Amino acid sequence: MFKFLRKQKRQKVLVIGLDCGAPQLVFDTWRNQLPNLKRLMENGIYGELVSCIPAITVPAWSSMFSGKDPGVLGFYGFRNRANYSYDKMSIATGAAMKAKRVWDYLSEAGKQVIVVGVPQTYPVRPVNGCLISGFLTPTVQKQYTYPNELRYEINRVLGDDEYDVDVRQFRTEDKDFLLQQIYAMNEKQFKVMRYLMEEKPWDLCMLVDMGVDRIHHGMWKYHDTTHHRHEPGNRYQHAIRDYYIHLDRQIGTLLERVPEETLILTASDHGVKGMHGGICVNEWLHREGHLALLEEPHGDGPIPFEKVQVDWNKTQVWGAGGYYARIFMNVEGREAQGTIPATQYEQFRDKLAEAIRAIPAPDGSDIGTRVFKPQQIYREVRNIAPDLIVYFGDLSWRSVGSLGHGDIYTFENDTGPDDANHAENGMLILTDHQMKDKGCRVAARHLMDVAPTILDAFGLPIPPDMQGAIIEG
């Protein structure tokens, strides 16, 4: 256990977010090649940061900065059921985020904030300071900053270059083009960040870099020697390492601009692991007799589930694809053509969960699938949650929602090239000059602990509905 010295009045807090930042790479593999992150570790504490369930960008960053789980927030991924119909889905933009996040509490307390690139901040909302929205922003031709005139300052800072809220095409086989996009986005974001830190007053300053996530998904097979598609000696084998080194240098330029008493928190929303393949969840449900079709898929290649003709009067269950699986049950009195009696809901759900956990690898071995009931993992379940949340192979296999694969296993991604899935544990480095015991690797903390820790750093009260705890030991 480490100890803090008696807290002095906090002047500033800097948050460096690395979407998909991998603790094993930062803490171990490349530690000595990342001098700025290494210095933050040596002058603070570090350890893994357990993500929410599901461990994906949305809802993880909002859970981190609100201190509330996805059930309380009421969204369970990028796309969520808008109602109990069979086809209406909604995108969890910033409009879906009803809870306050740390910059809202600080703004209300009169603190000045700079917020850059945090997911689910579009459409933009007022803050006491500056905000540049994150990766779900449809275009920078619309208002993506607060205040609105900040966009024109960004134009002046970048000159002829247009600001990037995300990599435009990260699912591409043109890896040179992918790298060019990632580096360009990073250069622009950090240039703007340095400008804001120098020209705008701030108490809290935070940035989320999406480049780490994009390079992991786009190029993990080139790095990971255990990946089934890894080719030894390939020309991109050091691409991910080189981006981490570049990013570390960029972080160094921010550290040069903060006073010594600044609390610096570096965090990722989840980690990364190699993707072994995909489980075609709807193919499996169809084979098991849970999903009935009016017409069998035919044609070349997989067919998106939305384009398949489902016989809802005979269907019990359907699923959705992604880094995790969302399983929906067709329940009498809930769905319009429900087939599962409401009185048998829990019994059916338990048997279904058991059957899903038993889906083996192609060689018949156990892949270690985990299945979650929302009511058991969230403090509250708001809006419309999946009936089951599934980590195939504990996130080593993705969920594939399309049909027409001819098998329940696939080694092709139906949404484009992608080499990696998410690992549940991200990373945390907390650096504070008031800390007595420094350089300690500590037991894992939870992502929801970040919000109360930031509020506490400013001496602000922790709202009673926050679920996280202050990181102090």
In the CATH hierarchy, the architecture of the largest domain is: 3-Layer(aba) Sandwich
Anisotropy-based shape: globular
Unreliable residue runs: 1-7
User: Roughly how much helix do the residues carry, as a percent range?
Assistant: 25-40%
CATH superfamily label of the largest domain: Alkaline Phosphatase, subunit A
Q: How can the largest sheet be summarized?
A: 10 strands, mixed
In CATH, the topology of the largest domain is named: Alkaline Phosphatase, subunit A
Radius of gyration: 23 Å
List the total number of helices.
Answer: 13
Question: CATH top level of the largest domain?
Answer: Alpha Beta
Question: Explain this structure to me?
Answer:
The structure is a single chain. This protein is an alpha/beta fold and 473 residues long. It folds into two domains: 298 residues, 3-Layer(aba) Sandwich (Alkaline Phosphatase, subunit A); 141 residues, no CATH class. The longest helix has 25 residues.
Brief summary of the model shown:
The chain is built from 13 helices and 21 strands. The protein is α/β, with parallel strands linked by helices and 473 residues long.
Q: Which key phrases capture this entry?
A:
13 helices; 2 domains; 4-stranded antiparallel beta sheet; 10-stranded mixed beta sheet; 473 residues
SSE topology:
Layout lengths: L12 E6 L4 H7 L5 H8 L1 E7 L6 H10 L3 H4 L5 E3 L7 E3 L10 H7 L4 E4 L12 E4 L12 E2 L3 H9 L16 H25 L4 E6 L1 H13 L15 H17 L7 E5 L3 E4 L2 E4 H7 L29 E4 L4 E5 L15 H13 L12 E3 L1 H4 L10 E4 L5 E4 L8 E2 L9 E4 L1 E7 L8 E2 L3 E2 L3 H8 L16
Parallel strand pairs: 1-8, 1-9, 2-20, 2-21, 5-6, 5-8, 11-16
Antiparallel strand pairs: 2-19, 3-4, 6-7, 9-19, 10-18, 11-17, 12-13, 13-15, 14-15
Helix pairs in contact: 7-8, 7-9, 8-9
